Every structure is written in C-alpha cells, then in structure tokens.
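agent> Task received from the user: take the single chain below, predict its 3D structure, and emit structure tokens. No templates, no multimer pairing.
agent> Plan: (1) validate residues, (2) run structure prediction, (3) serialize to tokens, (4) report one or two observations.
agent> Step 1 OK, no nonstandard residues flagged.
tool_call: predict_structure(input=
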Amino acid sequence: VPGLLPMLIEGQSFIDAQDELSVQQFMSKYGMPERINEEIFIAMGKALDFIDPDKLSMTVILTAMNRFINEADGSQTAFIDGNQPDRLCKPVVEHIT
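)
tool_result: status=success, residues=97
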C-alpha cells in the first residue's frame, strides 16, 4: 500500500507526525481503499485500543505495524476473529479444566 511507504522509509518521525490524524483521515489523505480499513485497520484498532478507526490516532496503528515489520516473526502475526474473552481466554480455560 503506497500510503504506508513513508512509514517504512522515514520511520518513527513520520509515525509521530501522524498523531493528529485518525485512521480514516490518514486513509483519505493517502488515497487508501476502504477495504484496507475493513480488512485490517478495524481489527487492529479493536485489538490495540478497543476503539473504532475513526476515533483512533493513526500513530497507534503505525507504531504497531512498524513493530511487527521489524520483528523476526512479525509476518506470523494474526488477529482474533472476535472478542478476547470468548475467542482466546475461554478456549484456553476449557482446555486446562
């Protein structure tokens, strides 16, 4: 996605400069398609801060993405398809008990 290239090239200084933009504003500014929001940013926003992308600072999303990119196993990161208590904690508890 071309809108994310500055993050890769400029790093944390670019990320910090996006703090005043919501995810939706960032997407509009960089011409990103709505499907990116639907497929990625909504899940990230919920996972990171339990907030919708139109209220979440793009700095939070970019910081997380930058960390995943720079981790050796970052490409293996996945999202839970539901809330954490039901989709993560409950199966673990059921397995243990």
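agent> Step 4: summary for the user.
Residues 34-49 form the longest helix (16 residues).
agent> Done.
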